[in-house]
Amino acid sequence: MFNYLSLCQAVAEIHHPDIVLGIPLYSDLSYVHDFIVQAEGAYDQTLRGMMNLARCGQRIEVRVVLLPHNIQRLHPLACFITRNLPFVEHVAWMGLEPMGHAVRNWKEVWVDPVDYQAKLTEATGELLRHRINTSIYNHPLCVLNPRLWPLARKSISDWKTEYVEACQKCGVRSDCGGIFASAVLRQSRGLHPLQGVFVKRLMI
């Protein structure tokens, strides 16, 4: 809806000091983004919306849910953001929550996080080199490349968080965001206990 400049102007006129607008952008390719959101023309509207918000001085976070359809182009997407959207203040790489349409289409939308760590690490490095703040949401530490641990956030709401059997002997459970309770039956093969001292040393 921020495709409409008048809406952006109305939001800007509130002059709220703490609003950051999280805008989904799933690919640098229009047809990939439009396919994921199942709406033709959504990519163009999304970009116009972000441009309008920036024009009105609003704070923007780009949110990227990691799916089989976009993980092969995470680095091109990061390059697109640094070149065309340098005004965004934060990029969040987000693990998929098994809810709504995702549950009904799980076989089509699920990808094990251990299978895209190289792509995620490369894309994250690109953003950080251009000094764009970057975080990783909805991923337990054990499935991430250790280089990404300092960027992992405990982003899952407490009432949605689950720690499975593999977490019981983990030395950094208190620092890990766990997994979605709705994902208990759809676990990554990378779930395993970590040694607390080793992880904390890498995260400093």
Question: Main traits of this protein?
Answer:
204 residues, alpha/beta, pyruvate-formate lyase- activating enzyme, 2 domains, four-stranded parallel beta sheet, two-stranded antiparallel ribbon, 8 helices, 34% helix, globular
Please provide a written account of the structure.
The protein is α/β, with parallel strands linked by helices. The protein folds into 2 domains: 133 residues, pyruvate-formate lyase- activating enzyme (Alpha-Beta Horseshoe), CATH 3.80.30.10; 48 residues, no CATH class. The protein has 8 helices and 6 strands. The strands form 2 sheets. It has a 4-stranded parallel β-sheet with strand order 1-2-3-4, with helices on one face. The model has no long low-confidence stretch (mean pLDDT 92).
H/E element sequence: HEHHEHEHHHEEEH
The total number of structural domains is 2
Task: Work out the helicity level.
Answer: 25-40%
Global outline = globular
Number of helices: 8
Report the portion of residues in β strands: 5-15%
What Rg do the Cα atoms give? 18 Å
The beta-strand count equals: 6
Order of strands across the main sheet: 1-2-3-4
Q: Which structural class should the secondary elements be placed in? A: alpha/beta
Spans of at least 5 consecutive residues whose pLDDT stays below 50 are none
CATH fold topology of the largest domain: pyruvate-formate lyase- activating enzyme
First-to-last CA distance: 40 Å
CATH homolog superfamily of the largest domain: pyruvate-formate lyase- activating enzyme
CATH architecture of the largest domain: Alpha-Beta Horseshoe
CATH class label of the largest domain: Alpha Beta
Largest sheet descriptor? 4 strands, parallel
